[in-house]
Write a structure and sequence with these properties.
Two copies of one chain form a homodimer.
Chain A lengths: L4 E2 L7 E6 L2 E4 L4 E4 L2 E2 H7 L2 H10 L5 H12 L8 H6 L7 H12 L11 H26 L13 H10 L5 H14 L6 H10 L5 H12 L7 H11 L6 H10 L19 H15 L2 H18 L8 H12 L6 H22 L7 E4 L14
Antiparallel strand pairs in A: 3-4, 4-5
Chain lengths: 379, 379
């Protein structure tokens, strides 16, 4: 038999790919996209520029960014037949199951779905990125029995999504906060859904298969589903003054506090810093300060109790507050994550295709050998 | 930073999971399901019994097998609304994109799609296994403009599928050969799509997400898509007498001969032995001997030229001949693989859930660090 090396469970600590997109130093609390600190990008860039950066490994010039924005806006509209498909979806279906199904269905509407040469793969990545907000917003209006709002190509990725979802243009703060959330979620090393996308494309499958698989992975409560958990916790605490007793009680009972701690970060999640500021500003703007105050109170208790153990708020913690203040339904939180992460998944697919080797690890077989097939009458 | 271990590309040789289902010794050409040689199962068992074996790690008694068959037959029929969905699919869509989309859509029709406790997960596995043949057969009839044939629960998994597809009951040889193909494709260690299913479910996502992802992985030409390549080769050779010149020429030009060689097997693929016999019998029964003769001639040339290098026919080689003789369209070959492998995927999902740890490897970042964000006007 060929030699085999047993890896730690979950492939923890195993380097399974190379990337030029994002760098994480969990000990120091560093996240960089192509070498640029995430906090700088969140404060000064926009989502479209960040996607350009991830896919081209350099910041665009004014001309390049304008061209890229125009290309993406050209993809806000869905292929013919997709809206009819959305209108026939069960209204009570969970949005992540819907999104997974609709992104998969895009593959049926593509006349050449399997093309994965660099140009075609990039083209499909742009299509999926452009279509995803429209799929989510249109499904949300369909399930609420509201009139479908068609995309407005004069608006940014973030602005257009909120417009299609709510039927009115977002305030500047809302658009800015939402755009920052998109930037902060775009890429994050070889997280589970990104790894899934790379494993799937390594069979030389197609962009739709890789994206669909990644959406399914992101759905899980141990991955993208975590931000819903934060909201459940916040909703479950009536007022900021109830926070200390509640959180201290949970800590004593060793219950997990959603939105705190991260398998990768043992320092403050660098994605949470600016989000906290934005969440505060949104709370002030919308007059919905109770939620921010509860969040802030939770962070204070956690800081006093467990920061020494390396447990800090993660990106989910303040993105939950942000999404809620913008008016998003709880079950759209994970689709928001997907909407942004499509850019990272696609970038990793392009990287994988540029230097591919089929992922095909081994399983250790721990059962019996040489068992006879006993005829059924003799069992 | 935490220590990281660089793994070989494609995680080759890395043990990434434990399993009690299948054991492969590629050097010796051994494949066992729960310790029983695959050739014994292909000759003496039936697909339903093999699925029972994989999911329960023991052969069933008569009573247990009858109960399991009845449960599975109860799932041949689709949930309400699925047939309407199938009837609206683009007729020119590729069946694997369709299957991926429809299995994903099953998640929207399940009132409790995310339940993954052992009982619920097994229940959903049985649903998906029972529904998959119906989804494929109904789509095939829809695209051909033929009347939909509803399942016949008096028939076996294999027999009912061929009945729904062709509108008539298969001959005994056809059903037997097709059932053997289902047995031979049910599980195969930690192949790419199975690994995909385990990676996805490790986020505690759901059975639909894991199965959808695996279908997308299987689509790839480096994985399940390989059996279509065999058929292209066979179709491309006019007559058995043209085989030697053609194959020898391909070998000289170092072109890949589809259906030969396997990353795992360096000996005769144990799944190919009995299939070869069945393919021959089918050729005799159907009077379509040219295809078998071409296959046999290719194997002869390959045996003389490259068997010494460990390159033998693999399971794809004779399954292509078998599927073609049964009358299946070329683009249904990979869906047939999926229809069987659903059982292995589901078994691995159950194993993963029983002892889960999130798959979250690392990427080696190979780009620059500490890059300043230059304002766009200064680039």
């Amino acid at each position: 038999m060929t030699t085999a090396t047993a890896a730690p469970k979950g492939l923890e600590g195993i380097v399974a790919a190379e990337t030029e997109m994002s760098f994480i130093d969990g000990e120091k609390g560093v996240l960089e996209y192509v070498g640029i600190a995430i906090d700088d990008l969140a404060r000064h860039s926009c989502f479209e520029e960040v996607v350009y950066l991830l896919w081209n490994l350099k910041l665009p010039t004014v001309t390049e960014l304008d061209a890229f924005k125009a290309e993406l806006r050209g993809r806000y509209a869905l292929p013919h037949g997709m809206l009819e498909r959305i209108k026939r979806l069960p209204k009570d279906a969970e949005p992540m199951h819907v999104l997974r199904t609709l992104v998969s269905a895009l593959g049926m509407h593509d006349p050449d779905p399997n093309a994965i040469d660099p140009k075609a793969a990039r083209h499909k990545a742009l299509n999926i990125l452009g279509h995803t907000p429209t799929l989510i917003a249109m499904f949300d209006r369909h399930r609420k029995g509201e009139e479908i709002v068609h995309p407005d190509t004069s608006l940014s990725f973030a602005g257009n999504f909120l417009y299609m979802l709510n039927g009115e243009r977002p305030t500047e703060t809302m658009e800015r906060a939402f755009d920052a959330c998109m930037i902060l979620h775009a890429d994050h090393g070889l997280n589970n859904s990104t790894f899934t996308a790379r494993v799937v494309i390594s069979t030389l499958s197609d962009m739709y298969s890789a994206m669909t698989a990644a959406i399914g992975a992101l759905r899980g409560p141990l991955h993208g589903g975590a931000n819903e958990g934060v909201m459940h916790l916040l909703n479950d605490i009536a007022s900021p003054k109830d926070v200390p007793a509640r959180i201290e009680g949970m800590l004593e009972r060793k219950e997990k506090i959603m939105g705190f701690g991260h398998r990768v970060y043992k320092a403050y999640d660098p994605r949470a810093t600016y989000l906290k500021t934005l969440a505060k500003q949104l709370a002030e703007d919308t007059g919905n300060s109770a939620l921010y105050e509860k969040s802030s109170a939770i962070e204070k208790v956690m800081e006093a109790k467990v920061a020494a153990k390396g447990i800090y708020p993660n990106v989910d913690f303040y993105s939950a507050t942000t999404y809620h203040s913008i008016g998003l339904d709880l079950d759209l939180f994970t689709p928001m994550f997907a909407m942004s992460r499509v850019s990272g998944w696609a970038g990793h697919v392009l990287e994988q295709l540029a230097d591919n080797r089929l992922y095909r690890p081994k399983a250790a077989y721990i059962g019996p050998h040489g068992v006879a097939y006993t005829p059924i009458g003799e069992r």
